[in-house]
């Protein structure tokens, strides 16, 4: 029987996964693999007009709609923005997330990304992955899993500060669905983006990045990843779509 994977995509904010790996997640789902999307924070600072409670409720709904379009199971935590720190409590939470979801593959932020929520999620996930399968961590709620998952980092915002990607996923056929998922995060588009970051159009940003990654890898649209460059993340088979365990 063909092996099916479990995939955990873990990010800081409600729309991060839509930016960086939604096309890849859609491809996993199309191939019949199980996909979890974990969002650490409520996105409570992502507004210039709403109260904290209002924007948290809006963004929870937006994330839910996006995950439905992608076909993933959403695990949305309640941390506040900027409250993702490198400490024991947060690390335990990620060890438990990995135990709870038992993934073969983890996609997460690069440890060099621009804001500490992103970089710390990447660091915590990376530092948790290897411990999810060991015994006797007394604070964990879930039992150890059987194997160590492979960690891939997706692009940083703006694609700055990292080594070139070593894996590409052709998302040409999934691009429209990715944009539809991203468009669910209405509260983050238009006026808010321009006031906060001076960026008018993140749809254009996604198009530019995915087209560039596509150009680099010989297809129309692509998403790019770097495997964690430590033992035992490298495998002699392909874990990103198209998943390929045997010779081609
Ligand atoms: Zn973010």
Secondary structure layout:
Layout: E1 6-11, H1 16-20, H2 22-30, E2 34-41, H3 52-70, E3 73-79, H4 88-101, E4 105-108, H5 116-129, E5 150-154, E6 167-170, H6 175-183, H7 191-197, H8 202-217, E7 222-227
Parallel strand pairs: 1-2, 1-4, 2-3, 4-5
Antiparallel strand pairs: 5-7, 6-7
Zinc ion binds at residues 12-13, 16, 118.
Task: Briefly characterize the structure.
The protein is of the alpha/beta class. The protein has helices at residues 16-20, 22-30, 52-70, 88-101, 116-129, 175-183, 191-197, 202-217; strands spanning 6-11, 34-41, 73-79, 105-108, 150-154, 167-170, 222-227. Bound molecules: zinc ion.
- Kindly report the average pLDDT value: 94
How much of the sequence lies in strands comes to: 15-25%
Which molecules are bound besides the chains?
zinc ion
Corresponding CATH superfamily: LmbE-like
**Contiguous runs where pLDDT drops below 50 for at least 5 residues:** none
Radius of gyration: 17 Å
- Overall 3D shape: globular
Number of strands: 7
Number of helices: 8
How many independent structural domains? 1
Helix vs. strand class: alpha/beta
